[in-house]
Write a structure and sequence with these properties.
The protein is built from 1 helix and 15 strands. By secondary structure, the chain is an all-beta fold. The strands form 2 sheets. Strands 1, 2, 3, 4, 5, 6, 7, 10, 11, 12, 13, 14 and 15 form a 13-stranded antiparallel beta sheet that branches. Strands 8-9 form a two-stranded antiparallel sheet.
Length: 229
C-alpha cells in the first residue's frame, strides 16, 4: 500500500517549501496531526484518519470549479474528494476507482446528495479494484508453446440505495475552528444484502468532516477540514 505522507505541497504553487515528514505507513497507530503547523501553512489541508493513524495532508490539485480536490502523498497515494466527500483513491491495496450518485429514477442529481434534505433517498454506485487479482494465462509469443501468467486487477461494482438522515445543527470542533454543523448519516442498503453507514458533518454549503467506508468490508477513511479550499 502506498501510504499517505503527513504533508504534500500544493502543486499549483511555485517555490513551495520543502516539507520532510513520515508517511502514515511509518506511524501506524499514532497521531501525527499538528494543528499549529496546519494553521501556519498557507495551503488548504485536512486531518486525515486512516488505519488507526492521523496525519496532516495538504491539497495537491483542485478541478471542476473547486468541486474535485485531490490530496496526494510523497509516495503518490491519493485521496480524492468530490463536493467534499470521498470519490476515489489511488495507491492502496483496495482502491476506490469511482463513486457516483444519482436519483432513484436514474437521473443526475440537482445538487450533491449529502447537501440535500434529511430523508432524501438516492442510488450509489462504487467501482473498486479487487485486492485479489485474477491470474490469466497468456501465450508467450517469444517462445514456442510456452505460457506465462499475469495478475490482472478485477474491477468490482457495488450498488446501493442510500438514505440521508440528519440531526439539528450543533457545535462541532474541527482542527482549527468550531462550527455549528449538522450530523448526517448516510445509510446504504447494498445489492448483496448488507447495510453500512457513513457519517458526515455539514453546513448548508459544504461537508466539513466525514467518516466513510466506500463499500461493504472496504477500507475506511475519515477526515476533517483544517483549512478550506
Amino acid at each position: 500500500m502506498a501510504a499517505f505522507s503527513t504533508l504534500a505541497c500544493l502543486v499549483s504553487l511555485s517555490g513551495c517549501a520543502q516539507i520532510v515528514s513520515n508517511s502514515l505507513g511509518d506511524v501506524m497507530g499514532k497521531d501525527e496531526f499538528d494543528a499549529t503547523r496546519a494553521s501556519e501553512l498557507p495551503y488548504a489541508s485536512l486531518k486525515l484518519k486512516h488505519a488507526n493513524s492521523t496525519a496532516l495532508v495538504v491539497l495537491a490539485t483542485l478541478e471542476g470549479n473547486g468541486r474535485i480536490a485531490r490530496f496526494e502523498s510523497r509516495d503518490r497515494g491519493i485521496l480524492e474528494l468530490r463536493d467534499g466527500v470521498l470519490s476515489a483513491t489511488s495507491g492502496f491495496a483496495r482502491d476506490v476507482a469511482d463513486r457516483r450518485e444519482q436519483s432513484t429514477t436514474g437521473r443526475a442529481l440537482a445538487r450533491p446528495a449529502w447537501l440535500m434534505a434529511s430523508g432524501t433517498t438516492y442510488q450509489v454506485s462504487v467501482s473498486a479494484l479487487s485486492p485479489y487479482p485474477r491470474r490469466l494465462e497468456r501465450q508467450d509469443a517469444a517462445s514456442t508453446g510456452s505460457q506465462r501468467q499475469d495478475d490482472v486487477a478485477v474491477m468490482q461494482v457495488h450498488e446501493a440505495t442510500a438514505r440521508l438522515e440528519c440531526e439539528a445543527a450543533a457545535p462541532y470542533s474541527l482542527p482549527l475552528a468550531e462550527l455549528p454543523l449538522q450530523h448526517c448519516r448516510e445509510i446504504l442498503s447494498w445489492d448483496d444484502g448488507s447495510t453500512t453507514r457513513n457519517d458526515l458533518w455539514r453546513d448548508e454549503n459544504r461537508v466539513w468532516a466525514a467518516d466513510m467506508t466506500a463499500w461493504p468490508d472496504g477500507p475506511r477513511f475519515g477526515w476533517e477540514v483544517a483549512k478550506a479550499w
